[in-house]
Design goal:
binds coenzyme A; alpha+beta
Amino acid sequence: MSAIEINALRSSPEIREWLSEILIETVAHGGSVSFMHPLQAKAADAFWDDALAAAGREERIILGAWDGDVLAATVTLLLDCPPNQPHRAEIAKMMTRRSHRGRGIATALMRTAEQLAVRRNRTLLVLDTATDGGASGLYEKLGFTLAGEIPDYAFKPHGGLSGALFYWKRIGG
Ligand SMILES: CC(C)(COP(=O)(O)OP(=O)(O)OC[C@H]1O[C@@H](n2cnc3c(N)ncnc32)[C@H](O)[C@@H]1OP(=O)(O)O)[C@@H](O)C(=O)NCCC(=O)NCCS
């Protein structure tokens, strides 16, 4: 298997197509990433068009992990925090293609996102994940602390409510 290369994704029709494909696959298999199944390509494309435009304005960084010319995983670092929280950033849309899971790719992406946040003088990272079927194990392994759970926070992609677990981590100290 070839080495994984991580880089910041820039807007192009091809990149948008890769990102939409991962998002639709993730949602179809029950990943809680803000959308319901079935996620239409048009809605996925619209989401990534906006997200990539925000990345172009440096309000966020959308990282991609490439296995050759296949986008294997992505994570977003949200930098556009309110004026009284310039030290904070948020992790979102952590998704690894099913064919590439269990190989440490999400871990590598999270570490890169953290380094980039530190370089932008961020000292606090936050994220949330579904209680039911989320990725709390991954985040706890990466040193995030659980702040708490909010019950019935969001619907799972195939229906039924799940709580959400909120995590934080001090970085760059
Ligand atoms: C969560 C996800 C991104 C992990 O991707 P991955 O590339 O397989 O993760 P890694 O290989 O880096 O796993 C790192 C560690 O976290 C653990 N882990 C990964 N996914 C986990 C999950 N869903 N729950 C608990 N632990 C998890 C792994 O067991 C692994 O531990 P190990 O090193 O002891 O084996 C992937 O399963 C996914 O895309 N899930 C669907 C979308 C989703 O739920 N995203 C999170 C939204 S908050």
